[in-house]
Amino acid sequence: MGSVGFEVVEFRRAGATLSGEFQVGHTNGSVAFVFPEKSTNILVMLGLNRRYHLMLRFSFTFSFFCFLSPLYSNDKPNIIVIMADDLGYGDIGCNGATALKTPHIDKLAAEGVRFTNGYCSASTCTPTRFSLLTGTYAFRQKNTGIAPPNGPAIIRPGTETLASILKKAGYATAVIGKWHLGLGDKAPEWNGELKPGPLEIGFDHCHLLPTTNDRVPQVYVRDHRVLNLDPKDPLWVGNEAPPTHQPTGITHRSTLKMDWSHGHNNTIHNGISRIGFYTGGLAARFRDEDLGDEWVRRSNEWIAAHKDGPFFLYFASHDIHVPRMPHERFQGSTKLGFRGDSIVEFDWCVGELMKTLDRYKLAEKTLIVLCSDNGPVLDDGYQDGAVEKLGNHEPAGPLSGGKYSVLEGGTRTPFITRWKGRIKPGVSNEVVCTIDLAASVAALTGTALSQEACLDSLNILPALLGESGAKGRDHLLQQDNSGTNFGLRMGDWKLVRMKNKGKSQAKVSSKNRIDEGGLHRLYHLPNDAGERKDLSAERPERLKEMIAKLDEVIAAGRTRL
Ligand SMILES: [Ca+2]
Question: Which pLDDT tens digit goes with each residue over 37-52?
Fold first, then answer.
């Protein structure tokens, strides 16, 4: 192409009507063209955001379309969010694990961007999943801690979500795997229609583990119904023991194929006692060993049916949450016990999804985001050998804490993006978080977000795509399950606020940290990734600044401007 020049003609608010407006698949929205009388000049209006446009005059000597063609190839990629459960920063090969192999995740990282400062927003399942979908910090809404078996839908119909944003943009949308965000208005109607649920907040289709595998019931929910439920054998779920005698982890402990260590001793299914009680629905019950295969099979079917795209798949693996019971073919595949074997099963699932994309030639049309819902835990209620067989493996890598904690190990977790042909492979140190996917995909697809939606989701799309010089978040709030303890990451600094020092029975690492220190602690992460040296007394000004920022984030009610 010959010479191309441009000058700024006009910078103004949106509102003018221009002919020929259409969407392009680049970071910011629309581009409008006004064709000039002379073929050597052209006006281009760039939509910088919803409010401002920048009008440029280009001077061309040759092909106009040749210049703009790269923008078109990125229009509305398929999007797959793969969320692992309880997978720690150090649990994957590309983040330094040597005690087990994760070749498929490592390949994904080698072909995309591996983030060393990738976060989920909370250190337990439910609040992170709430924030992933709603783009709002979970502490801003009541009852967003770990959902009980009979918990109602936490995300109410009418709430803008990652799925509803993409549905508006013309995507087919599905969630396959663990839900754990409640179903039903006041409680799930296990024998009737299970709504509201995913289908009422933007998903076209769901195939779910409705709660989590250590909580009852062990059945699949497909769209609005329990799959394969025999009406003559209704499903009953409760928090108290049923009037009919049912074996429990206490009364029949010697029969268990995996013993419990704390809690998890109510109704027995598949030789494993759970949290909560249930009866009936025998034809609908699954085997824990088959869950990974089920998610892959159902995802493959759904992708095949929607391969012409665009589609959004939220692949929510149950791995590596307790009870860890991987398929028999993965049992014994590591020396780390079922925890390590479950990581291998999860890695296999990632590989199968990548194979499916290759089969349909979709790798260059699909953005994959791999993340976890919280940091690692070893003993989370079952005696599965995770503690005894750990050896030198460090599930959180160099970080302290894990699941339930606001130390870095609780929320800084595996985070990888891949979009072949669009993302330049590399490693990024930018701060990115699962809570930002909503606003970022809205930007990617040119979908408007109302002011009332996604209150804490920031558009960090360029950073997620690994673009040179792109910045991630300048601050990030981290919370625990109760939403009373917080971490605040700002640049190199980390503030920890511990209001509630309640002791968890879970063992998160080989050297469970004894909680010590006052209400506020201050750490300098580049020198102290493990958050061991509290600098709050040495750096009072920095401490004051961080406390003020944390208070501001909480009180403001939102952080997306
Ligand atoms: Ca989890």
Answer: 333 344 454 544 444 4
If one compares 249 and 511, the residue with the highest pLDDT of the two is 249
With beta carbons less than 8 A apart as the criterion, state whether 312 and 163 touch.
yes
Give me the DSSP letters along 253-315: GGG-SS-BSSS--SBEETTEE-BSEEE--GGGBPPGGGHHHHHHHHHHHHHHHTTTS-EEEEE
Whole-number Å distance, alpha carbon 335 to ligand 1 midpoint, is: 23
Task: State the chain's mean pLDDT as an integer.
Answer: 88
Residues 406 and 539 in one domain: no
Taking a C-beta distance cutoff of 8 angstroms, is the pair 377, 402 a contact?
A: yes
Backbone angles phi, psi at 51, to 5 degrees: -105, -30
Are residues 200 and 54 part of one domain?
Answer: no
Please report, for the domain that includes residue 215, its CATH number.
3.40.720.10
- Please indicate whether residue 342 or residue 16 has the higher confidence score (pLDDT): 342
Instruction: Using a CB cutoff of 5 Å, list residues around ligand 1, an ion.
Output: 85-86, 125, 373-374
Do residues 53 and 82 both lie within one domain? no
| Domain containing residue 33 | 4-72
Residues above pLDDT 90, as percent of the chain: 81
Residues 353 and 480 in one domain: no
- Asked if the model's pLDDT at residue 4 lies above 50, the reply is no
CB atoms within 10 A of CB 315: 25
Are 428 and 114 spatial neighbours (Cβ–Cβ below 8 Å)? yes
Separation of 108 CA from ligand 1 center, angstroms?
22
What is the Å distance from ligand 1's center to 126 Cα? 8
Contact 304, 360 (CB under 8 A): yes
* Residues 182 and 312 occupy one common structural domain: yes
pTM: 0.87
197-207 pLDDT, tens digit per residue, is 999 999 999 99
- Range with the lowest mean pLDDT among 75-89, 100-114, 498-512? 498-512
Tell me how many domains the chain contains: 3
Q: How confident is the model at residue 515 (pLDDT cuts 50, 70, 90)?
A: low
Least confident of 25-29, 383-387, 391-395, 508-512: 25-29
278 in a domain, yes or no? Answer: no
Residue 5 pLDDT level (bands cut at 50, 70, 90): very low
Q: Which long-range contacts (CB under 8 A, 24 or more apart) does 530-533 make?
A: 530/398, 530/399, 530/400, 531/399, 531/400, 531/401, 531/407, 531/408, 531/494, 531/496, 532/400
Measure 123 CA to ligand 1 centroid, in angstroms: 8
403 C-alpha to center of ligand 1: Å? 7
* d(CA 124, ligand 1 centre) in Å: 5
Asked if 152 and 213 sit in the same domain, the reply is yes
Say how many Å lie between the CA of residue 145 and the centre of ligand 1.
12
Band (pLDDT 50/70/90 cuts) for residue 355 is very high
Q: Does residue 340 sit in the same domain as residue 464?
A: yes
For ligand 1, the distance from its centroid to the CA atom of residue 52, given in whole angstroms, is 40
Measured in Å, residue 86 CA sits from the centre of ligand 1 at 4
**Residues 371 and 496 both lie in one domain:** no
Between the CA of 560 and the centroid of ligand 1 the distance, in Å, is 26
Single residue among 455, 470, 485 that ends a domain in this structure? 470
